[in-house]
Write a structure and sequence with these properties.
- This is Sulfotransferase.
- Its EC number is 2.8.2.-.
- One of its GO terms (molecular function) is sulfotransferase activity.
- The protein has a single domain, classed as Rossmann fold, CATH 3.40.50.
- The chain has 16 helices and 10 strands.
- The radius of gyration is 19 Å and the shape is globular.
- It starts with 8 loop residues before the first helix and ends in a 7-residue tail after the last helix.
- Bound molecules: adenosine-3'-5'-diphosphate (A3P).
C-alpha cells in the first residue's frame, strides 16, 4: 500500500519505476511516497530513516514542513537544552548555523549514511525532520520521545519557500516556474512534503491525543510572544526555568540570541554554506530573510488568497485546526 514503509530495498528500486513523480516549480523531482510529495533526492534517506532509526525516550524531534520556522525552532530548542553547558556569550550559535547544531534526519544524517552512528550524540539528542506524522519511523511513535511541531500561514510559507528554492537553485533557476504557475501547484499540495493540510493535521491530531508527546506551535504565535513560548517549551522538554533564571532574564536572553535580526547578522549565517551532503548544499543566508507575518500580500493577490482559503477550509474543516 502507499503508506507501507519499504522493507526490501531491491524491491523498492524496482518500484521506483512506477512511483508517481512530478516536477516541482524549481525543476526538481518530487515522488509521491507514503501519501506525501517527497523530494526525490531525499527519498532513499527518508526510507533509511524510517527503517533504521532507533529512538530513545529522551530524544527530541523538531518537525515542520520546510519554511515554517524550523531554523528558529532549532535555535530556541538548542539554547534551552544547552543553557547550563554553555552560557549565552559562549553559545555555539554565535559561530555555527542552527542547522549544523540540530541535524536533519532525511536532509542530513540519513542522507550520508544508510545507518549513521547516532549513539555518540549526547543526550538528550535533538534532530529535525520534515516527514509528516504518519510517515515517522515506528520507533519514534513507540518511544516516549518528544516532538515539537511548527507550522505557519501557508501563503507565507509558499512565498518563503519560493525565495529559498530560487536562491539555491543555481543553474536550474531558468527552469523555475513563474509565480502564478507555481501557485497552481501549491493549491494542489505539490511541493516538498506537501500537502500542508495533511502535514499539519497529522501533528495537530497527535498533539490532541498525547499532550506529553507532541506540542503544536504556530510561527505567528511565536512572533507575538516568544518569551512565554520559550518558557512553555522548556517545561515541555523537561528543562524548566528556575525562578532565579526567570528573574535574571535568561528567557529574554535566549529569545534575543535566537532572534532573526541577531542570527541573520552573524558572519557564519551571512556567508556560510550549510552542507547537508556532498551534493546537497544550501546558502546559509537563504535561511534568514524577512520573517514577516503576511509577506504574501506583496506577491499574491486577494483572489489567490481567497481561493487558497477555501481550499484550506475544505481540507481542514472538521479538524478544528485553522492556520
Ligand atoms: P521568510 O522567508 O518569510 O523571511 P525555515 O527555518 O523553516 O527554513 O523557515 C525560514 C523562514 O523563517 C524564513 O521566513 C526566515 O526568514 C524565517 N526565520 C529564520 N530564522 C528565524 C528566526 N530566528 N526568527 C524568526 N524567523 C526566522
Amino acid at each position: 500500500s502507499s503508506t507501507k514503509v519499504v522493507e526490501d530495498m531491491d524491491e523498492f528500486q524496482e518500484s521506483l519505476q512506477t512511483i508517481p513523480k512530478k516536477v516541482n516549480w524549481d525543476g526538481r523531482w518530487l515522488c509521491y511516497y507514503n501519501n506525501f510529495w517527497c523530494p526525490e533526492r531525499v527519498l532513499k534517506s527518508t526510507i533509511f530513516f524510517q527503517r533504521n532509526f532507533k529512538a530513545k525516550d529522551s530524544d527530541i524531534i523538531l518537525a515542520s514542513i520546510p519554511k515554517s520556522g524550523t531554523t528558529w525552532l532549532k535555535s530556541l530548542s538548542f539554547s534551552i537544552i544547552n543553557r547550563k553547558k554553555c552560557t549565552i556569550p559562549e553559545s555555539p550559535l554565535l559561530i555555527t548555523n542552527p542547522h549544523d547544531l540540530v541535524r536533519s534526519m532525511e536532509y542530513g544524517l540519513f542522507l550520508n549514511s544508510e545507518n549513521p552512528d547516532l549513539e555518540a550524540f549526547s543526550c538528550p539528542r535533538i534532530f529535525s525532520t520534515h516527514l509528516p506524522y504518519h510517515a515517522l519511523p515506528q520507533s519514534i511513535l513507540n518511544a516516549k520521545c518528544r516532538i515539537i511541531y511548527i507550522c505557519r500561514n501557508p501563503l507565507d510559507q509558499f512565498i518563503s519557500l519560493r525565495h529559498f528554492l530560487l536562491e539555491n537553485s543555481g543553474e536550474d533557476q531558468q527552469k523555475a516556474l513563474p509565480i502564478d504557475e507555481a501557485f497552481e501547484l501549491f493549491c494542489k499540495g505539490l511541493y516538498p512534503f506537501g500537502p500542508v493540510w495533511d502535514h499539519a493535521e497529522g501533528y495537530w491530531n497527535a498533539s490532541l491525543n498525547d499532550v506529553q508527546k507532541v506540542v503544536f506551535l504556530k510561527y505567528e504565535d511565536l512572533k507575538i510572544d516568544a518569551t512565554s513560548h520559550v518558557k512553555m517549551l522548556a517545561e515541555f522538554l523537561g528543562f524548566p526555568f528556575s525562578p532565579e533564571e526567570v528573574e535574571n532574564g535568561v528567557v529574554e536572553e535566549i529569545v534575543k540570541l535566537c532572534s532573526l535580526e541577531n542570527l541573520k547578522n552573524m558572519e557564519v549565517n551571512k556567508n556560510g554554506v550549510v552542507v547537508k551532503s556532498p551534493t546537497v548544499k544550501f546558502k546559509a543566508g537563504s535561511y534568514f530573510r524577512k520573517g514577516e507575518v503576511g509577506d504574501w500580500k506583496n506577491f499574491l493577490n486577494n483572489s489567490m488568497a481567497e481561493r487558497y482559503k477555501k481550499i484550506m477550509e475544505e481540507k481542514l474543516g472538521k479538524s478544528g485546526l485553522a492556520f
